[in-house]
């Protein structure tokens, strides 16, 4: 599968590298693609680098890992390229960084999934990879069972299946929580956020059946 990485920083760089090493085609993107040469070299022969526009054209799946305040503008800027794409969106709202957007989202009872869906209309959106730190992703990928749990939420069942498969390919345990409205159950400040819990422990904490 071809995956376009938008935001090739801490999370995007780590997860994209894991996917490239698992055999997926990965295009890391930046406004300055030449700055990604070291990342691409470390990810191996399945990795490329390019512009954001090139990543959007390349990817069957788009991994969107940018500051949360930038998601709305990204959706507006690329509204003609995004419809129909499976988009895995990872951002977290931090008021100290994201300003009014971060404050609004954190103060609401809606959670990030609802806001992200508003800003990325027409996409097959999945929230995921927001609840585990990059250092944990590096250290714990492909560990022996039980693997670290990665909660996922989305309204498109096929997109959720694709995202769950990619979580497994990266070396983790996908925990399908349910629709986007339930992304709030693994947002910042919840018991499973930044907890490094295993998949079974995430399911137990969220009251989910084993294996979901």
Report on the architecture of this protein:
With 212 residues, this protein is of the alpha/beta class. Helix content is 39%, strand content 18%. It contains nine helices and eight strands. Strands 3-2-1-4-5-6-7-8 form an eight-stranded mixed β-sheet, sandwiched between helices. Helix 1 runs parallel beside helix 2 (37-43). The two termini are 24 Å apart.
Number of domains: 1
Strand order of the largest sheet: 3-2-1-4-5-6-7-8
The tally of beta strands, per DSSP, is 8
Let me know the average pLDDT.
97
Helix count equals 9
* Series of secondary-structure elements, N-terminal to C-terminal: EHEHEHEHEHHEHEHEH
CATH superfamily: NAD(P)-binding Rossmann-like Domain
Radius of gyration: 16 Å
Structural class: alpha/beta
Low-confidence stretches: none
Identify the overall geometry: globular
Approximately how much beta-strand content do the residues carry?
15-25%
Question: Which terms summarize this structure?
Answer:
212 residues; Rossmann fold; globular; alpha/beta
Give the gist of this structure.
Helices cover 39% and strands 18% of the residues. It has 212 residues and is an alpha/beta fold. α1 packs parallel to α2.
């Amino acid at each position: 599968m071809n995956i376009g990485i938008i935001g090739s920083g801490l999370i995007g760089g780590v997860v994209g590298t894991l996917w490239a090493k698992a055999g997926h085609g990965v295009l890391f993107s930046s406004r300055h693609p030449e700055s990604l040469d070291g990342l691409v070299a470390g990810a191996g022969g399945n990795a490329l680098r390019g512009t954001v526009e090139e990543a959007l054209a390349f990817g069957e799946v788009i991994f969107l890992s940018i500051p949360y305040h930038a998601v709305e503008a990204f959706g507006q800027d690329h509204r003609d390229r995004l419809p129909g794409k499976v988009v895995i969106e990872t951002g977290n709202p931090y008021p100290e960084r994201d300003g009014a957007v971060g404050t609004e989202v954190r103060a609401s009872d809606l959670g990030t999934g609802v806001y992200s869906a508003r800003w990325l209309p027409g996409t097959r959106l999945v929230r995921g990879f927001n609840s585990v730190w990059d250092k944990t992703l590096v250290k714990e990928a492909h560990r022996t069972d039980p693997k670290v749990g990665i909660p996922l939420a989305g309204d498109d069942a096929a997109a959720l299946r694709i995202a769950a498969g990619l979580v497994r390919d990266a070396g983790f345990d996908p925990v399908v929580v349910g629709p986007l409205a339930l992304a709030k159950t693994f947002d910042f400040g919840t018991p499973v956020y930044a907890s490094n819990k295993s998949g079974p422990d995430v399911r137990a904490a969220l009251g989910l059946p084993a294996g979901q």
